[in-house]
Amino acid sequence: MSDSSSPRTAPRGVLATGSPHGAALLDSLTHLLARWLPRQRWFAGKGRALGGLTLVAATELLPCGTGGPAPGLLHLLVRTRPDRQDAPAALATGDCYQLLLGVRPVLPPALAPALVGRPVDGPLRGRAVYDALHDPRLADLLLERLRAPGRLGALRFGRAPGTAIPSGLAARVLTGEQTNSSVVYGDSHILKLFRRVSPGINPDLELPRALAGTGCDRVPAPSAWFEASPGTAEPLTLGVLQPYLAGSRDGWHLACTALGRRADFTDAARSLGRATAEVHTALAAALPTSVLRRPQLEQTATAMTERLAEASSAVPALRPYRTGLRRAYEDLAGFARRGRRCVVQRLHGDLHLGQVLRGPGGRWSLIDFEGEPARPLTDRRTLGPPVRDIAGMLRSFDYAACQHRAGGPWVQAWSRASRAAYVAGYTEVSGTDPMDQIELLRAYETDKAVYEVLYEARHRPAWLHVPMAAIRRLAASE
Questions:
Q1: Which pLDDT band holds residue 83 (cuts at 50, 70, 90)?
Q2: Chain segment 292-317, per-residue pLDDT in tens
Q3: Whose CA, among 54, 171, 294, 447, lies 20 to 30 Å from 162?
Q4: Which helix H or strand E contains 153, and what residues bound it?
Q5: Contact 415, 353 (CB under 8 A)
Q6: Read out DSSP for 39-102?
Q7: What DSSP state is assigned to residue 221?
Q8: Distance between alpha carbon 103 and the CA centroid of its chain, in Å?
Q9: Burial status of residue 229 (CB atoms within 10 A of its CB: 0-12, 13-18, 19 or more)
Q10: How far apart are CA 25 and CA 121, in angstroms?
Q11: Secondary structure class of 296 (helix, strand, coil)
Q12: What's the pTM value of the predicted model, to 2 decimals?
């Protein structure tokens, strides 16, 4: 596809080169976006008043100011400004968000739920501005841009060599996501758009590309991607297009279904452990590794202890178990004092049953390598011990069992058997038994459970009993 819709060749657009329309455009949209943004599932500033927006970059993918019936497509990067003058330093600069806005003189009824509003002034005065991902015509245009590498304004589109990306695929937006937005094209590809962005390559692009270079096929290889360079030291990763694993089901759904049927899950858990080990082995081969020795391990134990103290202050239910939980961190410090060490490498970073897919043939794939989106990008790219991912998956088996309404001893036996099978499968492929570093594994599992308690207390109080069951078990364990 040509760049015929770029600002340089679309003088009738609202962002013609050299025009002052960028500032006027944002001024006219700020009031609308200030009401719309906090209602989006992916907006991270809930609970904080929005003081305003700063334009980082604006690019017309289709001209928006022609006045004709055809839709326009506007790509914005905006930075939020906290409302309070005394906002914490960490929030003083706000967050940067990616917005894709459609523009039409008349909005079809089917797109009414996507409406952002109608500006009362500025270059888009009186026109309907809406979330463009819900418009199949504009979603298709985005796919066409990804099929044709090149630059457009602040945006750069890249494509993996030799990758086939069909055109004319029906687009549909996935529902239920919280931190990003995804569009599925036919049964062929899925595009993930990162809503809150920051300078630096996103791990969800970096790690699958590295794995593809090793020949590891446990992770869908990126077909195309796009990024922005709005004057920052490093580009911002905006979106990744990957093959869509049609017919696959996520591990959480499969585990809950097995629990509902009182069915054994150990074969699936063992093969999932093997898949995890294959990915860890390939990441260690493709990217740098390092070693944690006594000072770093003691710092890790101290940081975990501090997180426990903070969580206990916020969630009183944790307080009776602090002594037992701290024992896991003290054991990790003792592990370090005995001269033990551990290899660290790039990881998935947020591994659980919802981040794995099982295909029709029973083969597992790992997805969503973004890490914990709430953490800074630099933290998500930090090396860590493989047991951190393993601990996350072990907690996920426990979560599935504890949330099962039937309860009873058989549910806990299901969890123990699935956890053991997962570790056994991991050991078979990696040649390293995570239980050989039990102090490290238990400390990371305890740290994860403490995080879960804090999360559930803040966001889903009705689920607090699930991680609290693990807290009681971990606090009592020797």
A1: low
A2: 999 999 999 999 999 999 999 999 99
A3: 171
A4: none
A5: no
A6: GSTT-TTTTS-EEEEEEEEEEEEE-S-S-SSSPEEEEEEEEEEES-TT--GGGTT--EEEEEEE
A7: P
A8: 28
A9: middle
A10: 9
A11: helix
A12: 0.90
pLDDT of residue 478: 67
User: In 3-state terms, the chain is what percent helix, strand and coil (to 5)?
Assistant: 45, 20, 35
Query: What single-letter amino acid sits at 5?
Result: S
What lies within 8 Å, CB to CB, of 9 at 6+ separation is: 3
370-386: per-residue pLDDT in tens?
A: 998 878 899 999 999 99
Lowest mean pLDDT among 9-13, 68-72, 228-232: 9-13
Q: Which CATH class is domain 156-243?
A: alpha beta
Evaluate whether 255 touches 397 at the Cβ level (below 8 Å): yes
DSSP 347-412: --SS-SGGGEEE-TTS-EEE--TT--TTS-HHHHTS-B-HHHHHHHHHHHHHHHHHT-SS-SHHHH
SS3 2: coil
In whole angstroms, give the CA distance from residue 434 to residue 164: 40
Whether residue 439 contacts residue 296, with contact meaning beta carbons closer than 8 Å, is answered with no
Q: Say how far apart CA 449 and CA 70 lie, in whole Å.
A: 52
Query: Strand order in 249-250's β-sheet?
Result: 249-250, 356-358, 364-366
Q: Say whether domain 249-476 belongs to CATH 3.90.1200.10.
A: yes
Polymer length in residues for the chain: 478
Residue 14 scores a pLDDT above 70: no
Q: Strand ranges (DSSP E) for 198-235?
A: 224-228
The Cβ of residue 155 has, within 10 Å, a number of other Cβ atoms equal to 22
Cβ(201)–Cβ(233) under 8 Å? no
Please write the tens of the pLDDT for every residue from 408-444.
Answer: 789 999 999 999 999 999 999 999 999 999 999 999 9
Tell me the C-alpha to C-alpha distance, in Å, between residue 450 and each of 82, 319, 440.
29, 11, 16
Amino acid symbol at 56: V
What tokens does 390 get?
Answer: 């393993």
- Which two tokens mark 296? 């770093």
- CA separation for the pair 62, 130 (Å, rounded): 14
Which residue stretches of 126-193 are H helix? 136-147
Q: Scanning the structure block, which residue is given the tokens 């001269």?
A: 339
Contact assessment for residue 90 and residue 74, using Cβ atoms and an 8 Å cutoff: no
Place of tokens 């463009």: 132
Element (H, E) at 337: helix 322-337
